[in-house]
Design goal:
heterodimer, A: mainly beta, five-stranded antiparallel sheet, 1 helix, B: mainly beta
Chain lengths: ~450, ~700
């Protein structure tokens, strides 16, 4: 809670460098005609915040601590160390906020909080390793969570499927290695995620809860895959050409392979007597696939006809035709596209540049860059768009002890119009509601 | 004709942990069912009816189940329905609903709405109770010895399922065929009333197991009781032994001896009652007075009285100095003698920009900050120095690029430490703790496992082994005499041979020897300690529980300095947990024998040296505890506390809010780190206090 020491800094007024101070307006900008609310997590401070943006500026309106959520839970779990709120989503009816926490014993969880009051609505659900991105079905019934397994062994992970009204996990669908991004098609029939270490886009049939299609995103080799292809790191997979030890430049959302056990045991084996296990693992360097796209996000267009995939390693966003299952357009971006989102009018594509410390806005109709804006601090994370297609709310992690930020971008002028401090390492962000305007 | 849905969907199986899971299933048409209703044509489901409305079944059992869909007029519809069960609890097969895991679960039924249909459709949640499988057989464990008339013993029961698995904690109904011979209570506690034979019966879920039990006359005429000591202090363990002798003076070796005690306080107003612990003849008293310990075998008993005095170990603490850190939260620390012969300490920080501080503490009354290192991290949780003082490790969490790892610091010039390498291979997930030895570094990876790293060249470390307990999560590791003891939450204490050799382990090929779970499942830290006086080997294993939900004193969880606009800021945090003491003298058969439990605070890092426990107890401060002699019971209530120091600092990060993280004795002083006030040095005044 280091940021609380800086709570007094949330004052309106211009800053010395001409950029708006936290919560303040840039005097040259038009005031918003409506009031907007978003929720954002702070991963290193263990908070969920509500931000309000309107004619009176931008403010941090509410703070919900993980400690308080544990206190309300009936399960008897005890809040131990950093829980790491990561993904945030709002159900389509706007009544519930879903949030993943990446850490935990044994693993992370999905939480359900009442929008507005911040009251815990149900006991959390245990998920897989480092659950991160999440998406909610259009009918609000199902929450799909990518078990990112950010720091675990390079083995296929999964998408957890949770029935939201009862907060019960009904399925865990194995996809490939390091799934990230989680979005449901507007028709409710398909779910999408990517696999960072296998260069895959994965489609799950929401009726059968099974993988229905896969798409390979490797640079120059884009195309459909067999639905059963769990990627290069699946046991028994043909590793193909030895690309050597992965080395990613820093900062980087995807840690490199590193040295790891040659024979990785099934991480879910909990019923085996550990003393029977040979816990010795010689750790030679092993050949493995070096992702050329390293996809970090997938976002369907509002009409469902296209899917946009952020290739963090190759600085591109791919537009994939939903029906034809092929690449239609490629957008070159700044350094490190991370999250993408499409405005409700399907006109603009908003891209966060994690390594590029900024946000790009691409006009999808014209097929060209509308503008780019620097964020107020470094390590850009997520996007939430207002229903009127006017504003983008961008979470920015920050570095070290500095607070996280929510930057508000005017999509017409592509300028940062406000910024709000939150807890350290602002992470997932989701739009809740607006009043006025439309 | 009423249409009925039959489940004819396809079962999809996924493998998780080796267990088959039933994923989704969608209802299709049965042979006699009507055509699927297209909701795109305007038909609307108004109600779903489950038949039955709730289910109760056993693991492995399948029960029939159906769902009817009705429109607003009550007409039967046949839309596509999705039925899903709690993962790992309930599944669906062609025959109906399948019980997979014991517990209270749910079946969820929703209507598959076609694209473009935006109206809400009803859904259904069906409660499902899945019970254990049926019991196939019940066995009563026979006694190891003879059941003698006039004595009583407890019988144990094992209830087996058909697959050979045991029912945990079964509910047993007991009865005896002849209570005049053997009577048995609902807990399996049987009293042998007279010679003869009776059949004991234990019933679990309607299945009965029997044991024919003979009762023989008790040959014991007298009991000899001896005590290892006749005058002790509170907290000392006294070993009582009892020999049951027959009329000829021969020992009846299988005579069941039961122990009890009576207490006579020195002052009945001060201590009207007292508790002591007696277990297998090992007795420990908490308060001074006279204790009469009785050994009984049926109607025969004998006793011995011992005298228990106060322990009288309290000593005063004197503050030597403080290295105040009030602008950041302090985490762990380590104090060591540098290669230049001076004394140094390193402190880490929590949520504070990755800073570590280096102090010259040669004069503990004047600790001087000599250097600092900042790394890309939000928290440097753990700092340690190799025994030879050659290098230090600073652990990283919250790196901006999410590549955490451990920082190795070259201490060749202790006053001017140099960053040797930031090592993150296999350690990107945050390193919470590390344990440096001269040649090897044991370092935690992402809370899942620990790596063993060759540190012969600290500028080029090389991972050579790892220990990963499947499904377990690790918090700390400590290596002693070639054995790594790791603290792994609900797995408990994990013991691994990493070079001791007794079990064939080496750093390159570690061998896991045992796991020992502890109550509560909060095993956070371990400290192995060999007690020279008794030859016993103990593991002190501590909980960490942030928060006190469920306790009468719940308190808050604040970590922030005071801010008038922020409710609750500037107040102390409240924690819980205690130290479990496990006797590992027989390393393959460890046994928990004692605890150190301060009830209103929470335990953190541990250090034991020269029969003294230096316990960091968060808001309870530094606790210095006499752990000499054999240990049993709760040391807190035995008068074993030597001193308590709470590092109150009015200008600390949070003022006057002790949060003691770690403590170490060093060259006659006790050093400690406190999250809100930095590093302190204190010492204990001499035992003999001057009489003014």
């Amino acid at each position: 809670m280091m940021w609380l020491a800086m709570a007094g800094l949330l004052a309106l007024g211009g800053a010395a460098d001409g950029q708006p101070a936290p919560g303040a307006w840039n005097p040259g900008e038009t005031e918003p005609q409506a009031t907007y609310w978003v929720y954002v997590g702070s991963e290193s401070a263990d908070f969920l915040h509500r931000i309000r943006f309107g004619p009176d500026g931008a403010h941090r309106e509410a703070d919900i601590s993980m400690a308080e959520l544990y206190r309300q839970s009936q399960r008897g779990d005890l809040f131990t160390e950093s829980e790491a709120p990561h993904g945030v989503a709002v159900d389509p009816q706007g009544g519930s906020i879903y949030m993943t926490t990446g850490h935990g014993v044994p693993d992370g969880k999905l939480w359900q909080v009442e929008a507005g009051s911040g009251r815990l609505l149900a006991d959390p659900v245990d998920l897989g390793r480092f659950p991160a991105s999440l998406g909610v079905s259009p009918d609000g019934n199902y929450v799909y969570v990518a078990n990112f397994n950010l720091h675990g062994r390079m083995v296929p992970s999964s998408i957890s499927v949770i029935y939201g009204p009862e907060m019960v996990e009904v399925a865990r669908v194995e996809t490939c290695t390091m799934p990230h991004g989680s979005r449901v098609h507007p028709n409710g029939l398909r779910h999408y995620s990517t696999c960072m270490m296998d260069d895959q886009l994965v489609e799950i049939d929401a009726m059968d809860l099974a993988v229905s299609r896969r798409f390979f995103l490797g640079t120059g080799q884009e195309g459909p895959l067999d639905p059963g292809d769990r990627g290069f790191h699946a046991p028994g997979a043909d590793h193909g050409e030895d690309h050597g030890h992965a080395g990613h430049p820093t900062p980087d959302p995807a840690p490199g392979e590193g040295v790891h056990a040659h024979h990785a045991p099934d991480p879910e084996h909990r019923d085996r007597d550990p003393t029977e296990m040979d816990a010795a693992h010689p750790v030679p360097d092993s050949p493995h696939y070096e992702a050329s796209c390293s996809p970090t996000w997938v976002q369907p267009s509002q009409d469902g006809a296209r899917l946009y995939v952020a290739c963090n390693a190759s600085d591109r966003v791919l537009e994939i035709d939903y029906e034809a299952w092929e690449v239609r357009r490629t957008f070159e971006t700044g350094r490190g596209p991370y999250n993408v989102d499409v405005t409700p009018d399907d006109r603009l594509l908003v891209v966060t540049l994690k390594q590029g410390d900024g946000v790009e806005v691409i006009d999808l109709v014209e097929g060209e860059l509308r503008g780019q804006v620097e964020t107020s601090t470094r390590v850009v994370h997520g996007i939430a768009l207002s229903p009127d297609s006017r504003y983008a709310f961008i979470s920015v992690e920050g570095i070290g002890a500095e607070p996280g930020k929510v930057d508000i971008i005017d999509l017409e002028t592509v300028e940062r119009v406000a910024s709000v401090e939150v807890g350290q390492q602002a992470s997932g962000i989701a739009f809740w509601r607006m009043e006025g305007g439309l | 004709m009423e249409s009925v849905y039959h489940v004819m969907g396809q079962i999809r199986r996924g493998l998780v942990g080796g267990a088959a899971l039933i994923l989704a299933i969608s209802f299709l048409w049965g042979e006699a069912a009507a055509q699927e209703t297209s909701l795109a044509d305007g038909a609307r489901v108004a109600e779903l009816i489950a038949e039955p409305s709730e289910l109760q079944l056993r693991v492995g059992e399948t029960v029939p189940f159906q769902v009817r869909a009705l429109d607003v007029d009550g007409n039967e519809l046949h839309p596509r329905l999705l039925m899903r069960g709690s993962r790992g609890g309930v599944g669906v097969s062609e025959e109906g609903v399948l019980g997979i895991g014991v517990g209270d679960h749910q079946l969820v039924v929703t209507v598959a709405l076609p694209p473009g249909v935006e109206e809400d459709a009803p859904s259904l949640t069906v409660p499902v109770r899945v019970d254990w499988p049926a019991i196939e057989r019940v066995e009563i464990d026979p006694l190891a010895g003879t059941l003698y008339a006039g004595t009583d013993q407890r019988f144990a029961v094992r209830a087996y399922h058909a697959d050979g698995s045991l029912r945990p904690s079964p509910e047993v109904g007991w009865e005896s065929s002849d209570p005049e011979v053997v009577a048995v209570d609902p807990y399996g506690h049987a009293v042998a009333n007279q010679e003869g034979t009776a059949t004991l019966r234990a019933q679990v879920d309607g299945v009965v197991g029997e044991l024919v039990q003979e009762v023989r006359p008790l040959p014991v005429e007298r009991i000899q009781v001896q005590a290892s000591e006749e005058r002790v202090r509170a907290g000392d363990v006294v070993r009582f032994s009892a020999r049951a002798l027959d009329s000829g003076g021969s020992e009846v070796e299988d005579a069941p001896i039961q122990w009890s005690y009576m207490y006579m306080p020195d002052d009945s107003i001060v201590e009207p009652g007292a508790s002591a612990v007696i277990r297998d003849g090992r007795f420990v008293a908490q308060y001074p007075g006279e204790y009469t310990v009785r050994a009984t075998a049926g109607p025969i008993s004998s006793w011995k009285t011992i005298r228990v005095d106060t322990r009288d170990v309290v000593r005063r603490i004197e503050v030597q100095g403080q290295g105040r850190v009030s602008h950041r939260r302090t985490s762990d620390f380590w104090v060591y003698e540098g290669l230049d012969g001076r004394d140094y300490a390193i402190t880490g920080t929590w949520g504070s920009d990755g800073w570590s501080y280096f102090w010259d503490v040669t004069d503990p009354t004047d600790m001087v900050l000599t250097d600092s290192i900042q790394v890309d991290a939000r928290t440097v949780n753990d700092v340690k120095v190799s025994p030879d003082g050659r290098y230090a490790t600073l652990t990283r969490e919250g790196a901006s690029d999410r590549r955490n790892g451990v920082v190795v610091v070259d201490l060749a010039e202790p006053a001017n430490p140099v960053l040797a390498i930031e090592y993150d291979e296999g350690l990107t997930g945050g390193v919470h703790n590390a344990f440096p030895m001269d040649d090897y570094l044991y370092v935690l990876s992402g809370g899942e496992r620990y790596l063993i790293v060759d540190m012969s060249d600290i500028y080029n470390p090389r991972t050579i082994g790892e220990v990963d307990i499947p499904g377990s999560r690790i918090h700390d590791v400590w290596v002693h005499d070639g054995i790594a003891y790791s603290a792994e939450w609900d797995t408990g204490i994990v013991m691994t041979d990493v070079g001791n050799g007794r079990w064939g382990g080496t750093p390159q090929n570690p061998v896991v020897v045992s796991t020992y779970p502890l109550p509560g499942g909060n095993t956070h830290a371990v400290f192995p300690y060999y007690q020279e006086e008794t030859g016993r080997f103990y593991i002190f294993a501590g909980d960490e529980i942030i928060g006190r939900s469920g306790f009468a004193l719940e308190g808050g969880n604040n970590r922030a300095p005071y801010d008038p606009d922020v409710p609750g800021s500037g107040t102390p945090r409240n924690t819980a947990g205690y130290i479990h003491i496990v006797d590992y003298t027989d390393m393959e058969n460890p046994k928990k024998v004692a605890r150190y439990h301060v009830p209103e605070y929470g335990s953190h890092n541990i250090w034991v040296e020269d029969d003294v426990l230096y316990q960091a107890y968060y808001e309870g401060g530094l606790r210095v505890v006499d752990v000499s002699g054999e240990l049993q019971g709760n040391l807190y209530t035995q008068g074993r506390e030597i001193a308590v120091f709470k590092p109150n600092d009015p200008i600390g990060y949070v003022s006057n809010a002790p949060t003691t993280w770690s403590a170490m004795p060093f060259k006659g002083n006790i050093f400690l780190s406190d999250a809100n006030s930095g590093i302190w040095a204190v010492n204990l005044e001499p035992e003999e206090r001057p009489i003014p």
